[in-house]
Amino acid sequence: MTLHRSLKAVLFFAVCVFAVVFLCAPVFADTAEIKITGEHDYKAVELTPQIYNKANQNLYDLLIKDETGENVAYFIIGRHSDTRTTDSNTYIPEFETEEIDGYTIIKIYGLKHVAINNMTFETDDTFERRFYFGNSLSKVLYNLPFGEAMKDTTVRFAGFSSPGEILEVKIKNGDDAPINISGITCTYFADEVVFKGENGKTYSLFFGDSSVSASPVYDIVNYKDLIIAQGYDVLNFGNITVDEEMGGEVTDETESETETESGLETEAETEAGTETEFETEAEGNEEFYSVLFNVFIIIVSVLLLVIIMMRMRKT
């Protein structure tokens, strides 16, 4: 009888350990395919808005795996580093508008965690109106097709990264009809993820695990300057598959690689065309939820240990 109870206790313990391991295991719902080509030993991919939207803001959750599922060491060349100062990447966001109390409220999607440099509003309307982003950024936008046409519908965000799903801005209309905005185009700074890849193979970038609280530590960072000096191939992502909270999985196939001020009179509080500096908003709640998740796991583990000890005493 005692042996039977001991076996049951051991089985119960094994199940509990499995449950804890299962709960603690990283869950990556999102992947991006990387097909390896080029002449250099080392490769790089530039992160896209679709990846930034789902990854942690600090990018701790990034993992690269080869065809066998083994982790591949990498380092990141930051989007604001000396070697990554251009913003040649462009992105056309989705948006919707509504009119409230003489303002056009513009809700822009797809820019979460994206380091925005410039945002341009596409329109053929004739206007001169003030743009606002929160209490931090204000600028007069205009499209004046008279004589030598004057047009400035671009706002500089200087690398601002939104922590939320929706970036909300507004344009003051007063008593005028709203501007017809046909599109919004952004330029942004992109991080490069650099790793050693074998030509002809397909690698995968995994991302989207909000429970990760620290980045992986690889030896490659100790000699990254030598890799940069030697050169590397910049590749493009193949299929990017993300698990949307609404509507299931979405797969995307990506393709393979100074402002002028008008001097016009404006409202009294600021000068025409002037932009104010603003600080980046908080990173959001990701760090908080990660810590909360870890605390939850510890509590569950302690409770399971107490239950096991109580059952062992009864035997």
Q: Concise description?
A:
The chain has about 325 residues and is of the alpha+beta class. The chain contains four helices and 20 strands. The strands form four sheets. It has a six-stranded antiparallel beta sheet. The protein has a six-stranded antiparallel beta sheet with strand order 7-8-14-10-11-12, with no helix packed on it. A four-stranded mixed beta sheet has the order 5-16-2-18, with no helix packed on it.
Using only C-alpha atoms, the radius of gyration works out to 26 Å
The CA-CA distance between the termini, in Å, is: 9 Å
| Helical/strand content category | alpha+beta
Sheet with most strands: strand arrangement? 4-3-17-1-19-20
Overall geometry: flat
Number of domains: 2
Which percent bin holds the helix content? Answer: 10-25%
Beta-strand level of the residues, as a percent range?
Answer: 35-45%
Largest sheet: 6 strands, antiparallel
**What low-confidence regions span 5 or more consecutive residues with pLDDT below 50?**
21-25, 246-251, 253-286
Number of strands: 20
Q: Whole-number average pLDDT? A: 81
SSE arrangement, N to C: HEEHEEEEEEEEEEEEEEEHEEEH
How large is the count of helical segments?
A: 4
